[in-house]
Amino acid sequence: MYTKDIIHTSDAIANLFQLIDVDRFPHALLLKGATGSGKLILARALAQYLICSNKSNGESCGSCQHCHKSLKSIHPDIHFSFPITGAKVTCNDFMNDFREFIIEYPYSSGSDWITHMGEGKKTGNITAAECNRLSHIVHLKPYESDKKIVIIWLPEFLGKEGNRLLKMIEEPPSETYFIFVSDQADMILGTILSRCQIVNIAPIPTQIMADLLAEKYTLQADDALTIANLSEGNINEAFTISEHGENKFLPIWMNLFRSAYQGHPASIVKSVNDINELTKEEMKTFFRYCTHFLRQCLLLRYLPSKHVVLPQHEVELAQKVIAVVDDEAIQKVTTMLDEISYHLDRNANMKISLLNFAIKTNKALKKNAVMA
């Protein structure tokens, strides 16, 4: 990847390339930040810049053999490790598929990758066997360049197996570099964190994302801004919504809200089953959308509609909601959405959690009249 492929740069990012120029790049770097902020692209660009034969002014040449192989993620001195499913497998068993995946979907999340492998309902991990593979790789000499780079995508999936890597992270062989790319750095072992230089990668600014979406998908400025706000800095999510051309979560949310509001058991069960068919990452997006919609409902009650970040047809639905639901009930449902998102992150049984949410939502709203 090139530096120019990074959608939004900052002083912190520019400094990383400058450290390479002066030969002071850290041997263990942790890039942390929210999903979809382009951290993996940054890690790949740094790796390519590290081994480029003719780099200059913070950009790889793109013409040397190292750049050609780096762009295809096949350079023998740039190694990848990532979450996988299965107890005794290693990333080598999935490497070809992974290379194609990160080239086609460079902003994707770990859940997207697990779903891509056909295991959308499972939780990936970085196994003991994979840690042993990394240990073997690190102690080999570089093949083509004078450096060796190990990119570990989502080290939070290491768990206690991360202890196997501590010695080589702290005292790596000469010209060996670890680049960790994390969406949830608070879940990484403290002993690994203490051995890394940590750089926080901020979410992509809303306006920059909106401009990109408007150009890439020929969207109206207002529609692009709405999607950018809903995505909350996650460019992968913004691309997904833009490609669908419409918000697929709105009808699912309205069905759940209406059935819970009216207290119809059969309708509630059907809505819960529909949501339960979503992948884990889609559920996260769904709950975030629901929260966003309700917050915009509160704004719509007190501000002109031009201040509300919703498309016009969703504004009309929001007006119907605030006509029959008061602020207290909206706030209660918003809090419950935060709770169910918390349960999702911890692999709770979502069908039970969703049924519980629907029942509590009915109790919060039942003092109101039947929804129009």
Brief write-up:
With 372 residues, the chain is α/β, with parallel strands linked by helices. The protein is built from 17 helices and five strands.
Provide the residue-averaged pLDDT. 88
Portion of residues in beta strands equals: 5-15%
Question: Main β-sheet: number of strands, strand sense, barrel status?
Answer: 5 strands, parallel
- The geometry reads as globular
Strand order of the largest sheet: 2-3-4-1-5
For the record, the CATH architecture of the largest domain stands as 3-Layer(aba) Sandwich
Calculate Rg over CA atoms: 23 Å
Give the SSE order as H and E letters.
Answer: HEHHEHHHEHEHEHHHHHHHHH
List keywords for this structure.
372 residues, alpha/beta, Rossmann fold, Zinc Finger, Delta Prime, domain 3, 5 strands, 53% helix
Kindly describe this structure.
With 372 residues, the chain is α/β, with parallel strands linked by helices. The chain folds into two domains: 3-201, 3-Layer(aba) Sandwich (Rossmann fold), CATH 3.40.50.300; 246-365, Up-down Bundle (Zinc Finger, Delta Prime, domain 3), CATH 1.20.272. 53% of the residues lie in helices and 8% in strands. The chain has 17 helices and five strands. The protein has helices at 11-21, 39-51, 65-71, 95-104, 110-116, 128-138, 166-170, 190-193, 206-217, 221-231, 235-244, 249-262, 265-276, 280-302, 312-324, 327-345, 350-365; strands spanning 28-33, 78-81, 148-153, 176-182, 197-201. Strands 2-3-4-1-5 form a five-stranded parallel sheet, with helices on both faces. The radius of gyration is 23 Å and the shape is globular. The termini are far apart. The model is unreliable at 368-372 (pLDDT under 50).
